[in-house]
Each structure stands twice: as C-alpha cells, then as structure tokens.
Design goal:
306 residues, alpha/beta, FAD/NAD(P)-binding domain, 2 domains, seven-stranded mixed β-sheet, five-stranded parallel β-sheet, 19 strands, 25% helix, 28% strand, elongated, binds flavin-adenine dinucleotide
C-alpha cells in the first residue's frame, strides 16, 4: 500500500503531526534524523509548555510525546532523510540507500540555533548558557546576564531580558550593529542595557552549578577581561535545516521554508511545520500547533484525492 504520510523530524511539530495523522488512521511514518526529540532534548527545565504544573525537563517532555505517538501506532524510524524528489507525485524520498514514495510529506526539521563554538558550551547549555530569552529568561530573574549578537534578535533578546534581569550586557564584536536603527535605539535608551563593543566572547568560566562569567577580548587592543554573569544568551541567529528540501521547496533568503495558508508549501503535497517555517516565534508550543495544522491539511489533501 502507498505510504500516505511521511513526517520528517521528531521535535514537537513532527510528533504532534504524527499524533494527529495516526488518530486519523493515516498510518504515518516519522523519521527522527540525528536528534530524536529535537532541540528540547538539549535543555533542562521547560516551564512554558502547557499541561505540567511543575517544570518538566526538556528530554522528559519529548520522551512523553514520543510514548504518546508510539501508543497510537506511529512508526518511528531513526534515520535521516538524505534526498528527496518532489517533482512528481507520489513524492520520492531517500533514507540512506532506501528509496520510498509517499502521498504527502510534512517537513518538521527545525532550525538549529547558532552558538559561539566556545569550549564547554554543550555542558553549560541550560546551566547558564541559552539561545532563547523567551524560553529561559525567567530563570534569570534579578540576575546579571550577557547577550551576544549584533542583529535585531540580539536587541529583542536584550530588551526582553531587561524586564526580568537586574542588568544586561550586550556584547558585539563590531561598533556597528546589523540591527535596524529603531531596535538599536530602543535598546540604547534602556537603562538596564549596557553596550560593550567591539568585544568578542572568547571563554566561559563556570563552577559546579554552572556559568559564573565570560571572558571577553577587545577586538582592536586584544586586551581581555572577565565579566561575572549568571547567564549568557547567544543571539546570533539560526540555521534552518532545509538544505535537503530546498531544491524543490521555496525558502526565504535565510533558508526558512515559505508557507501560505498555514502550512502549505509551493508543492501541493508537501507541508511544513514548526521552526523550519517560523522565523518569528520558535517555541515548542507554536511548533506543536503548526504540527497539528500540517496534519489536518495533509489529511484534507489525501481525502480530496479519493
Ligand atoms: C536550549 C534550548 C532551550 C529551549 N527552551 C525552550 C522552552 O523552554 N520553551 C519553548 O517553548 N521552546 C524552547 N526552545 C525552542 C524549542 O526547542 C523549539 O521551538 C522547538 O523544539 C521546535 O520544534 P520543531 O519540531 O519545529 O523542531 P526541532 O525541535 O528542532 O526538531 C527538528 C527535528 O527534525 C529532525 N531532522 C532535521 N533534519 C532531518 C532530516 N534531514 N531527516 C530526518 N530528520 C531530520 C531532527 O533530528 C529533529 O528531530 C528551546 C530551544 C533550545 C535550543
């Protein structure tokens, strides 16, 4: 029998799409890729996903979603989709050497937050290091934090954190910012935000509990100093994981998959959900919501073929 729905990615978007399509008796298969459970498996406490009175660990939340999908009969394959041909219907996909066809595909492959590449980043993630102020800012109430970046998202993150934290130090390696003048002006006007340029973060200091400070280097004199902070927010952008699909699926100039009418791509049988098509919000709950939309739209597409 023709595979009806193939879902790519097992983050909140993909697993939600799997839950919905499984309950619609569409027998979805979901491909996990290299990071089963998606980005939330790299964090500690999640406090803003509804349904849990106490904070839930990111990996636990994704394990629960996986178990829910499995209970509904979803087949989860631990492989990456390496190639696609979306030029004809049914769609053709490859997982390694295995080639198969599917009536529809839901792309829920996420966007990877860029990090600075400093030593010990991975072990300090969620223990002082973060790539998302909306997600983690709350844990730094009345604390001193640093934001690194020079674009609009660095300004946005700094402004957001200024409402929660005692002090925000915004570090950028150049004196000029890529951010829009209005966003920069807003941040400059804010008493709690201190600009530190042209400096680059070059090392992380920590103790048993987590991050304690960041070593920064002046980009002209190369003098260094260590600034004691409780948190470092890296606001240097995301890389959407769309490369495998972009020969067929339209993306914007940053690589985010373009969608219209909720989750429709330029290819009628292909839907996109979650961070891969959302340059704006990038939250687990919005990704899950888009996964639901993609599932229902894929279901309607299949029903219309009958
Ligand atoms: C450190 C950290 C903390 C965060 N904290 C919070 C928080 O507290 N609250 C919150 O709401 N959000 C938080 N976020 C954001 C949240 O994790 C994302 O918004 C959410 O995970 C996006 O879900 P997604 O399903 O779109 O994609 P992702 O979670 O990114 O999942 C993408 C999936 O696609 C798979 N994949 C990619 N390419 C392929 C391929 N070619 N073939 C097969 N599979 C593929 C990956 O392996 C992965 O399974 C945090 C993010 C980070 C990095």
């Amino acid at each position: 029998m023709q595979q009806l729905v193939t879902i790519i990615g097992t983050g909140p978007a993909g697993l939600t799409a799997a839950i919905y399509t499984a309950r619609a008796a569409l027998k979805p298969i979901i491909y996990a890729g290299l990071q089963h459970g998606g980005q939330l498996t790299t964090t500690t406490e999640v406090e803003n996903f509804p349904g849990f009175e106490a904070p839930i660990l990111g990996p636990t939340l994704m394990e629960e979603m996986t178990k829910q999908a499995r209970r509904l009969g979803v087949e989860i394959v631990s492989e990456e989709i390496s190639k696609v041909d979306f030029s004809t219907e049914p769609l053709t996909l490859w997982a390694g050497d295995k080639q198969f066809t599917s009536t529809t595909a839901i792309l829920a492959v996420g966007a990877t937050a860029r990090t600075l590449g400093l030593p010990h980043e991975a072990e300090l993630m969620g223990r002082g290091l973060s790539t998302c102020a909306t997600c983690d800012g709350f844990f730094y109430r009345d604390k001193k934090v640093m934001v690194v970046g020079g674009g609009d998202s660095a300004m946005e993150e700094s402004l957001y954190l200024s409402k929660i934290c005692s002090e925000v130090i915004l570090v950028h390696r150049r004196d000029q910012f890529r951010a829009s003048p209005i966003m920069e002006a807003r941040a400059r006007k804010n008493d709690k935000i201190q600009f530190l340029t042209p400096y680059q973060a070059i090392d992380l200091q920590s103790d048993r509990r987590g991050l304690t400070g960041v070593k920064v280097e002046h980009q002209v004199s190369h003098k260094t100093k260590t600034i004691n902070v409780d948190g470092l927010f890296m606001a240097i952008g995301h890389t959407p994981n769309s490369a495998v699909f972009s020969p067929y699926v339209d993306t914007d100039e940053h690589g985010y998959i373009k969608v219209t009418d909720f989750t429709r791509t330029n290819i009628a049988a292909v839907f996109a959900a979650g961070d891969i098509s959302d340059p704006h919000f990038k939250q687990a709950v919005t990704a899950a919501g888009m996964g639901c939309q993609a599932a229902l739209q894929a279901q309607r597409y299949i029903e219309a073929l009958a």
